[in-house]
Amino acid sequence: MYAYGLNGHLWRGANSHESDRFVFSLTPNPTNLGSSYEKVLNIKEHHLFPSVTPYYKKPLLIHDGKMQWLFDHKGRRFLDMFGGIVTVSVGHCHPKVTKAAVEQMD
């Protein structure tokens, strides 16, 4: 499954161009699945103060984010309804923002 976006659509701008189109996969990167769920739970149990420990039995373990989507350790996709300061406007790992960051770091 693929998602297509235009700058004009994402930011409600009036001057979008076909060349601004980007494509990204809505499946998580299998090499980006990180540590096992059990390992993360063990780390959480031994290193977080009880006051910051979540009260639910099985916490959500996010491993990847693309635009407005988050992916857990099983590859399930979730719509990010919370976001953060920047993800509200550009999403997680927006291709243009990622490209600009890499260019600045090189």
TrEMBL record:
Pfam families: Aminotran_3 (PF00202). Its main location: mitochondrion. SUPFAM superfamilies: PLP-dependent transferases (SSF53383). Keywords: Aminotransferase, Pyridoxal phosphate, Transferase. GO terms for cellular component: mitochondrion. GO terms for biological process: glyoxylate catabolic process; L-alanine catabolic process, by transamination. It comes from the Eukaryota. It is found in: Mitochondrion. Its EC number is 2.6.1.18, 2.6.1.40, 2.6.1.44. Its cofactor is pyridoxal 5'-phosphate. One of its GO terms (molecular function) is alanine-glyoxylate transaminase activity. Multifunctional aminotransferase with a broad substrate specificity. Catalyzes the conversion of glyoxylate to glycine using alanine as the amino donor. Catalyzes metabolism of not L- but the D-isomer of D-beta-aminoisobutyric acid to generate 2-methyl-3-oxopropanoate and alanine. Catalyzes the transfer of the amino group from beta-alanine to pyruvate to yield L-alanine and 3-oxopropanoate. Can metabolize NG-monomethyl-L-arginine (NMMA), asymmetric NG,NG-dimethyl-L-arginine (ADMA) and symmetric NG,N'G-dimethyl-L-arginine (SDMA). Homotetramer. Belongs to the class-III pyridoxal-phosphate-dependent aminotransferase family. This is Alanine--glyoxylate aminotransferase 2, mitochondrial. It comes from Timema poppense (Walking stick).
